[in-house]
Each structure stands twice: as C-alpha cells, then as structure tokens.
Amino acid sequence: MDACEGVWRRLVDERRLPREDWCLLIAHAGPELKEEARALACAIARERFGKAVWYRGIVEFTNICRNDCLYCGLRRSNRSLRRYRLTHEEIVAACAGGHAAGMRTFVLQGGEDPALSDAWLTELLSELRTRFPDSAVTLSIGERSRESYERLFMAGASRYLLRHETADPTHYAHLHPPSQRFSRRMACLRDLREIGYQTGCGMMTGSPGQGAEQLACDMVFIQDFRPHMIGIGPFLPHHATPFAQERPGDAETTLFLLSLCRIVLPEVLLPATTALRTLLPDGCARGVLAGCNVVMPNITPETERPAYMLYDGKPVSGGVRETLANVDAELSRIGCGLVSGRGDHPLMKHEEGVRASRPADAARAGSLKSETALVAARAATRTVLAEGRPAGASALAERPYADRQQS
Ligand code: SF4
To answer: For ligand 1, what atom is nearest to the CA of residue 110?
Structure first.
C-alpha cells in the first residue's frame, strides 16, 4: 500500500486528517483514488438524502461593493461596471416568482454595499417572512458586526453564507488588499455560528497562489469548523481584475474537493455551484455524482444579471421554470431529481413559529440589546443532535419538482 492509499484508508475510517496528510492526498491522488472518493461521496449523499436535490433561488440584489477582492468582477476598482441595487419590491417580486416554481429557500446575495443598513434589511426580512412564511432566507452579504448579524438573525434570516476563500492567512493576503483581514473573516464566521445561523463557508479551487498546501488548510478548517453549508467552485478570471490573465481552476480538482467535503461532513449542504456549471455543461449532474445535494438557480431579474458578473462567462439568461426544467432533466439522467422544500441542514430543526413575531418586532423596535429576544431567536433554531440517519428528503414535506409541474 503506498502512502496515498494509507492516507485514504485513514480518511475513510476517521473522517478527518492532519494537515500534512490532506496535503499528500490532494497533491498525489491518482484517477483511481479520485474515482473511489467520488463513489463513496455519492453513496453517502444518497444514504443521507436519497435521490433528492434541493433547489434554492438566488437573488443577486446589489452589485455595489466597498471591497476590492482581487479575483472579483464586482470589486470597487472596477469602474466600468454599471452598479445597481434592487428595491424591496423587486426582491419580493423575484422571490414570488421562485416561490410559484416551488422554491422554499431564497438566497439574498450581494456585495458589501454600504447602503445595506440593518433597518433596510430587517424591514426586507420582515416582508419576506410575511409573504413566504414557509420559506427560509439565507443571507450572503459579507462581513458585518456581530450586533448586525444578531439583528438580522432575530429578524428572520436563518442561514448565512460567507466564503472563507482560503484558510491560509498568507494566501488570503494574496487574494485581498491589506484592508481586508483574514482574522476578521474568521471572526465573522465564528460569530455567525455562535449566534445560531446555519453557516456556510467555502473557497475557490485553482485561485492564484493556491496549491495542495492551501487546500489542505481549507480541509483542516472545514473539518474543525464543521459548517452547515460549503460552496466550492473553480476560480474563473474576470477581465477587469488584477487576475485577468491567470489560469482558471479545473473541474477535476473542484469535484475531488466536493467529494472530500461530503466524506468529512456527511450531512453538509453542498451545492453544485454556478461556477462549476459554467466550466462543465453537465456540471450539475457531475456535482451531484460527486456528493452535492443542492442547486441554486438564479432568480435575479434578467435585466440585471449581466451586471452581476463575478467572473467572465457567468450565465445570464434563463427564466426560472426553463432553468429548473433543464436542471431536473439533467438530474433525471443520473436517477436524481429536484425536490421542493426548505432543505435545512438535517441536524438543525427550525420551529419557525417561535420567532415569528416577537424577536422580529424587537429587532425593528431597536431593543437590540435584549438578550431575551436573541435567546428566543436561538431557541427557534434548535439543534437536534440526531444520531444516525437524519430527516431526509422524504421526511421534510418536500415534493419532487416534476410532480409539482403536473399538479
Ligand atoms: S468577492 Fe464579495 S466582497 Fe469581494 S469584491 Fe466581490 S462582491 Fe465584494
């Protein structure tokens, strides 16, 4: 048995590795071992979630950003980009379209737009909760103060995506200007988790300066932090960034990392990202075969999508129903299918009624120091320390997308 094979066996047995072993595995795994990892990850996902793939609607509601990440087309130094911010009405209308198509999670994603005050956001969250009480709201709007995260949680956001981008501080400094600090990113992730959000992290594969050592740091971070969601996609360059001439990441590494994440965290929510699907025409199916169990179609108004160009080649067209039908057809070819539902992390059980009114009202009224309100909101996000098989697709009142279209 060679060293790589020995490390692989250890991973299968223990579901975690020390950093140097991750490094060896990522650097030296050959095609056979990668196929073994893919097959195991796929089997774990099927055992936990059946053949169901949850779908969420992403609303890219602002492309205004105060940050200057070197890899991102929305960076503030990109003066050629037309900037926009959707109104509350436009966001609610986009979610209504997704809701009619069966979506029960809305991911509100945007740059770090200075105009996103807590008041603006809590009012929006309140409106979404009123209009779509059966749906979850995920925020993905970057770094904020702990107090702000608490206010938004109390107002009804139950999930938060904040990619860590890299768990290697030196690499982080290579991808970001000095004003954006690695320690701050990590502190935000800890805050989110402590407050009670279902918390997502993630990184690009193949970003400039990244090698097996950096990805090994990512895997150690992931196995220790134990996020509820992980977004992994290939680095794809944008023409108006300092990384315009860098080589894109590759699909093979991305798929391998997705499989490793599924093996380490069997219950994690793992999307087949848009970036992966940009690189591979059948990226959705390939992602699911590597262990993914989520897709996130874009429900942003089509007029604005060209201005949310994180990287070159990001798809901009496609109505909600057309996109879902295409994805469902792609998944049906591998024996899977889209399923409507909130799709919470299996170990988190939400009792939405508990925080339906008081915490949100408290947040709006500004009684934000109220520990009582925060405790109530946390109680609504009760962690069920379930052993063994969690509530899977069949137990969560979900409906297959195809059935929904026939009824
Ligand atoms: S990655 Fe996010 S924070 Fe960084 S420039 Fe792009 S939108 Fe802004």
So the answer is: 7
CA angle 151, 268, 125 (to 5 degrees): 25
**Type of residue found at 314:** K
Pocket lining: 70 vs ligand 1, CB cutoff 6 Å: no
Give the side-chain half-sphere CA count within 13 A for 168.
21
Digitized pLDDT (tens) for each residue of the chain, 407 residues in all: 688 999 999 999 999 999 999 999 999 999 999 999 999 999 999 999 999 999 999 999 999 999 999 999 999 999 999 999 999 999 999 999 999 999 999 999 999 999 999 999 999 999 999 999 999 999 999 999 999 999 999 999 999 999 999 999 999 999 999 999 999 999 999 999 999 999 999 999 999 999 999 999 999 999 999 999 999 999 999 999 999 999 999 999 999 999 999 999 999 999 999 999 999 999 999 999 999 999 999 999 999 999 999 999 999 988 899 999 999 999 999 999 999 999 999 888 544 433 433 344 334 333 344 455 555 555 544 433 333 233 333 333 466 776 666 55
**What does each C-alpha distance from 364 to 160, 367, 372 come to in angstroms?**
20, 8, 15
Residues 286 and 169: their CA atoms lie apart, in Å, by 31
74 lines ligand 1 (CB under 6 A): yes
Nearest one of 77, 81, 61 to 243, comparing CA atoms = 77
CB atoms within 10 A of CB 224: 9
Which of the listed residues 66, 79, 112, 204 should we mutate to test ligand 1's pocket, taking the one with most ligand atoms within 8 A of CB?
112
CA 327 vs CA 297, 302, 305: distances in Å? 9, 18, 19
Q: Which domains does the chain have, with CATH numbers?
A: 12-18+29-350+378-406 (3.20.20.70)
Does pTM top 0.85 for this prediction? Answer: yes
Mark residue 209 as left, alpha or beta (left: phi above 0; alpha: psi -120 to 50; beta: remaining).
left
Q: 83 C-alpha to center of ligand 1: Å?
A: 13
Residue 37 CA to residue 32 CA, distance in Å, equals 9
